[in-house]
Amino acid sequence: MSNVLEKQQYYTEKYRPQFHFTPERNWMNDPNGMVYYNGEYHLFYQYHPNGTTWGPMHWGHAVSKDLVHWEHFPIGLAPDKHGAIFSGSAVVDWNDTSGFFEGGSGLVAIFTHADTYPDSDRPRQRQSLAYSKDNGRTWEKYQGNPVLQEESITDFRDPKVFWHRETNQWVMVLAAGQTIRVYTSKNLIAWEFASEFGEGHGSHIGVWECPDLFELPVDGDSNQKKWVLFVSIGNDPNYIEGSRTQYFIGDFDGKTFFNHQDPELTLWIDHGRDNYAGVSWSDVPAEDGRRIYIGWMSNWRYANITPTKEWRSAMTIPRVLGLKKTEEGIRLVQNPIDELQSLRHEKIVIENEIVAPGKNLLANVKSNTFEIIAEFEVGSAAEFGFKVCKGAHEETIVGYDLVKQTLFVDRTNSGEAAFHEDFAGKHESHLLPANNKVTLHVLVDQSSIELFGNDGVTVITDLIFPNQDSKQIELYAKNGEVKLNSLELYTLKTVWR
Ligand code: FRU
């Protein structure tokens, strides 16, 4: 095959996302080690380089200047005598607290080494370090690994580290069974136990994994900040939702996290099935000020058997996180990063139209790689929204149910689904119209839907596996009319060719 042809066919396989991150081939799960340094965003990820199912974990590596176009790099961290490389984070050690950088700065990765206890099958998970003096190109494991262990706890993993300015120290949040432990350090090497959070709070229907802890302004007001703790929860056979991520909102004093919500309340970051183990970028410059997040767009319930061949799994698009006061209390908001707008290609605009049964204002559009931003003013229609990736025998419905007051994605009839009995289905979440309006921001990319309702206060992320020719889009209203105040639809360019 000529190089030109190879280039044209790159990332064109069935179901291959065009503007989401996927590895060229083989298995990927959690995002890891996300850090910004010297003009580059690093994304590492749980990677099995020798197969399309979970296996001995490495850290795959990609680099981007804009969080949209990614360059694949060689594997960052590979298993060694201490075991496989499970999830973890990376930070810039600006002041050489670790002593790895001869007084300069550099990158330090803090990750879980996973093996088994000597002469036993019992899993052993310990925290270790690696550092890079060349902008993440090559990594050296720390000689003194592991740096943190605790024999009494089996599930002891996924360190997320950040610099806490107020107390002048490093803070690590770490999943420990069904709690989150906080450790502190002056040098990233010696860690001291500070506190434990979780018992009696939120959901405990699975093992706790992949925590993240950061501060966010409420309604953009930097004088009013709250700390947010993310905790992913593993798949449990008794809960059809599979693996998903909850969050807590409260305060943090450098040692202890205080939950300000009712401990019985569980807040989910996403109401779809396919957003797990997500965490945020470290060291995004203060001038930028964003807290940027990415999640693994799959679910442990079926992640190993989704119907892709060459690779398995994608990341969500990067999202900006915020907090917003709502009628129900302060809630997390997520929205696509602005950088994605650089992919906008053909544009369709509709304004002030009535949507009614039997009339499809998007009948002429065909795409399965696009973005829609629409504002509706609720009327008599019981339900409205979009049928996307629509073909002769399939469609995915993305919409709002005015009767139930729910935002939903219905993938019951979205395409290939037989690989797992729990895949087909409708996923919904309570959402009230705001001033009588509902906004739907939808991103469709071949085999995924991301739906942001009312400026990101409710999010639904779902995989779908439709036929590649199912490209029709229908703007619909059911049992009545709805006013479409505005709609912008953009087809989106690929980032891979
Ligand atoms: C979450 C997780 C982590 C672990 C990693 C192993 O999806 O189970 O807790 O470090 O995946 O690949």
Q: Count the domains.
A: 2
Total number of beta strands: 33
Note the total helix count. Answer: 1
Distance between the termini: 16 Å
Mean pLDDT: 97
CATH architecture of the largest domain: 5 Propeller
Here the CATH topology of the largest domain equals Tachylectin-2, Chain A
Q: Structural class, judged by helices and strands?
A: mainly beta
In the CATH hierarchy, what is the superfamily of the largest domain? Glycosyl hydrolase domain, family 43
The outline comes out as globular
Q: Quick one: CATH class of the largest domain?
A: Mainly Beta
**Which strands sit side by side, in order, in the main sheet?**
23-33-24-29-30-31
Task: Name the beta content range.
Answer: over 45%
Uncertain regions: pLDDT < 50 for 5+ in a row? none
Helix content: under 10%
The biggest beta sheet is recorded as: 6 strands, antiparallel
3D architecture notes:
This protein is mainly β. The chain has two domains: 310 residues, 5 Propeller (Tachylectin-2, Chain A); 149 residues, Jelly Rolls, CATH 2.60.120. Helices cover 1% and strands 49% of the residues. It is built from one helix and 33 strands. The chain has a six-stranded antiparallel β-sheet with strand order 23-33-24-29-30-31, with no helix packed on it. The radius of gyration is 22 Å and the shape is globular. The mean pLDDT is 97. The structure holds beta-D-fructofuranose. The site of beta-D-fructofuranose (FRU) has 12 residues, from strand 1, strand 5, strand 9 and strand 13.
